Amino acid sequence: QVQPVESGGGLVQAGGSVRLSCAASGRTFSSAGVGWFRQAPGNEREFVALIRSDGSLQYNEDAAKGRFAISRDNAKNTVYLEMSDLKAGDTATYYCYLRSEDGVTSWGQGTQVTVSS
Predict the structure, then answer these.
(1) What is the pLDDT, as a whole number, of residue 96?
(2) 3-state secondary structure at position 12
(3) What's the rounded Cα separation, in Å, for the pair 80 and 5?
(4) The dihedral of CA 43, 46, 48, 54: what is its sign?
(5) Which residues neighbour 42 within 8 Å (Cβ) at sequence distance 6 or greater?
(6) Helix (H, G, I), strand (E, B), or coil: what is residue 72?
(7) Where do the DSSP E strands lie in 1-117?
(8) pLDDT in tens, 5-53
């Protein structure tokens, strides 16, 4: 299983937007479910969003509150997480994972999103 690689994080002003990317090689990417978790300091990883291989979506509405959107571009082997109207509570390390058809899960190293006021 190829480890995905996240990118796009950084220091963002409150109320702003970011687009995180999760990329992985391999032709099996399109058949994998891809999701995002986040982890703030001292906390467990919190589910954020999931896009399945069939394109169906799932969000943690408590976290997203209508502000997040997950999408995928299988031609680029990339999944995006767009987050708008960022709050201080969105500050976390965001991790992407891939779940293959046979149930193997691979995690990326994470990308830091820091929301400043």
Answers:
(1) 97
(2) strand
(3) 12
(4) positive
(5) none
(6) strand
(7) 5-7, 10-13, 18-23, 33-39, 46-51, 57-59, 68-73, 78-83, 92-99, 105-107, 111-116
(8) 999 999 999 999 999 999 998 888 999 999 999 999 999 999 999 999 9
Nearest to 19 by CA among 5, 34, 35, 8: 8
d(CA 49, CA 19): 13
Task: For residue 66, give the nearest of 45, 46, 87, 37 by alpha carbon.
Answer: 87
Pairwise CA distance, residues 32 & 51, whole Å? 9
* pLDDT confidence tier of residue 1, bands split at 50, 70 and 90: low
CA distances (Å), origin 25, targets 70, 87, 97: 19, 32, 13
Per-chain mean pLDDT for the chain? 95
DSSP state letter for 26? S
What's the pLDDT band for 2 if we cut at 50, 70, 90? confident
d(CA 103, CA 107): 13
Residue whose structure tokens are 């990326």: 108
Joined together, the tokens standing for residue 78 give 């990339």
- Alpha-carbon distance 91 to 114, whole Å? 5
